[in-house]
């Protein structure tokens, strides 16, 4: 863990440094001032500050959190359902509500982007209701090779006792699951919601007829900074037996399930509902 002296804010243009949520919040509280805001009213993340102040395109690996404060966890709540569909777009034709696109990256605590991280999102609809009969406004995806993700959805509606929020579970391959929630800046109920955490505020801005948000997760794991070799095909040491839940699989691993053979496409920890036939993004049929 870094010392408090490492939290001295630096400008977005300073090589190798970024401005973390923690730095901004701590500095604001210490000074007795308001949290630094962009014109849109959201906490100024380093990569958004760099873009808005200089008009530049974001670099492939953006400024990340300073690494000593992983994204805090929050309660799952009563509306989680397993087996969500693999998709990045939760909006269907005729969906009511203000369109929202959330982008960001997932980093390890050493500021290395994490690829193949499972992100499972769920939220209320425009009226503040959760779909418990089906999978409306539920979906999972995996970060790409740069650690990036994109979620297309709507601004969730309100329901009694809570401010606006989006639920998410994040799991790096073979690592524990982080369960948390993302919040919207400037919401009146933020001050009365007992679960609200300003460290989980997204950056949100108006974009045409919709809104755009950004958030970077920092998981409590170390990212791999070195190059990795692709799996051999066939693997040199394929696992034996059938697919089982709760096991860590690596890309290239082979299993059997329901009498069929499958090869793992992305490293992950299996769970009930992710049987090979159900998740073609994780398993390919055939030897």
UniProtKB/TrEMBL annotation:
PROSITE patterns: TAT. Keywords: Dioxygenase, Hydrolase, Membrane, Oxidoreductase, Transmembrane, Transmembrane helix. Residues 240-286 form the Chitin-binding type-3 domain. Residues 50-82, 222-244 are annotated as: Disordered. Coiled coil: none annotated. The chain crosses the membrane at residues 24-46. Residues 228-238 have a biased composition (Pro residues). CDD domains: ChiA1_BD, intradiol_dioxygenase. One of its GO terms (molecular function) is dioxygenase activity. InterPro entries: CBM5/12, CBM_sf_5/12, Intradiol_dOase_C, Intradiol_dOase_core, Intradiol_RC_Dioxygenase, TAT_signal. The keyword DNA damage does not apply. Gene3D superfamilies: Aromatic compound dioxygenase, Carbohydrate-binding module superfamily 5/12. The keyword Flavoprotein does not apply. Belongs to the intradiol ring-cleavage dioxygenase family. PANTHER family: DIOXYGENASE (PTHR33711:SF11), DIOXYGENASE, PUTATIVE (AFU_ORTHOLOGUE AFUA_2G02910)-RELATED (PTHR33711). This is Dioxygenase. It comes from Streptomyces marokkonensis.
């Amino acid at each position: 863990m870094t010392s408090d002296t490492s939290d001295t804010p630096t400008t977005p243009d300073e090589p190798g440094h970024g401005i973390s949520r923690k730095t901004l919040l701590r500095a604001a509280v210490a000074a007795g001032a308001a949290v630094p805001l962009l014109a849109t009213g959201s906490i100024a993340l380093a990569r958004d500050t760099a873009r808005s102040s200089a008009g530049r395109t974001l670099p492939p690996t953006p400024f990340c959190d300073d690494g000593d404060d992983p994204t805090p966890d929050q309660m799952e709540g009563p509306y989680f359902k397993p087996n969500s569909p693999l998709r990045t777009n939760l909006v269907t034709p005729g969906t009511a509500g203000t369109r929202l696109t959330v982008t960001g990256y997932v980093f390890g605590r050493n500021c290395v982007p994490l690829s193949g991280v499972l992100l499972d999102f769920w939220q209320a609809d425009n009226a503040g209701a959760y779909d418990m009969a089906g999978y409306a406004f539920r979906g999972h995806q995996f970060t790409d090779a740069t650690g990036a993700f994109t979620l297309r959805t709507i601004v969730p509606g309100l329901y009694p006792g809570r401010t606006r929020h989006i639920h998410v579970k994040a799991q790096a391959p073979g690592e524990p699951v982080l369960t948390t929630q993302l919040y919207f800046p400037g919401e009146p109920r933020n001050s009365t919601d007992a679960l609200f955490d300003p460290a989980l505020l997204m950056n949100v801005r108006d974009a045409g007829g919709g809104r755009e948000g950004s958030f970077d997760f920092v998981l409590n794991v170390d990212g791999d900074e070195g190059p990795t070799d692709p799996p051999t095909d066939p693997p040199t040491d394929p696992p034996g037996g059938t697919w089982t839940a709760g096991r860590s699989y690596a890309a290239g691993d082979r299993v059997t399930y329901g009498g069929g053979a499958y090869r793992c496409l992305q490293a992950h920890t299996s769970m009930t509902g992710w049987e090979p036939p159900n998740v073609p993004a994780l398993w390919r049929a055939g030897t």
